[in-house]
Design a protein that fits this description.
mainly alpha, hpI Integrase, Chain A, 3 domains, 17 helices, elongated
Amino acid sequence: MAVRKRGDRWVVRWREGGRGSPAHQKTFTREKDARRFDTAVRRAKDLGQLSSEVVGSEQTVAAFLEEWWDKYARASLKPSTLASYAYLLDRWIVPYLGRLRLRDVSREAVDQYRAQLRAAGAGAPTVNRCLAVLQGVLQRAVEWRRLPANPAVGTMRLPHVRDSAIDAREPEQVEAIRAAILDTLGRADAALVSLLAYEGLRPGEAFALEWRDLLDERGLPRARLRVARGLSERQVVSPKSAHSREPELFGPIAAELGELYLARGRPHPRTLVFADTKGGHLRRQNWRQRVWIPALERAGEPYFRPYDLRHTCATLLIYEGRPVTEVAAHMGHADAGFTARVYGHVFRDAAKHRRVPIEEAIALARQHLAQASGER
């Protein structure tokens, strides 16, 4: 065992057994850390417990990631999360850290990795996402006794300011899109747009809705929706926040859904509200190509994601004067602070204007569209 200074670094060297056994070394930037590690290794040798818990695993990061993926990720993460993780691992993590041994992943190595990502052109959100994934993976290495501690814990994230404010569509724009759908495809797809825009559902949540989530035992609209499921990569999963919620069902949307229910011949409560021709779940990509893009073109709107319709709901709730906690609960945000950050500019602007109930805003937009259509 030896602790020596080498330049501006401190190096701990040791052997797992006696003379002739494999030699190891670990480098530290501070003498205090090197001495502490040296003491831990000596004590472990005395107890016959020298293992990866103390010295760190010889396994490479790439090899551990494969093991982590098979043992943990596949069984624990949603398909959509797996897809995003796979991209980050293949593009931004393995090429930079894959050849390192787990035992060599130090705080300094993590800081250097962060700098490399920035130099390679990764934006702040991508860097922060990679650091979060890496921290989670290394925490599993600690729990599996491959590392004594997680070197990524506490790594400073990069500040990120949104490039632009949330661009919520006005109710009049939403109604123009709905009208384009009603003219060619019918009320079901138009009702889906209403749920996204005025109830703030995510597309996957809307695609998984059953009639029992909207109507009571008498077939009448509920006072509140039941959002208990979501659709992710064609699999039914829990909602994004992992908790079900019951957002208020607003009058105009309740009436629209009631009309759709009667037009469908009062379907079974467990029937999907929005289904494909075989009664199964809609495919997001198919609906986007078949319904959404053509509707935007007919309405004269530039392309934006169906997901972004939910910003209209949040904006209308804020202009009604709802507190941030209520807006967060309705939208399914686990953290009201996130809601305040995303829609901060809306809260500031709403304070300067008359409060308009969301049901009134929807009704006015539909009235204006009807008048404009009549004039034409």
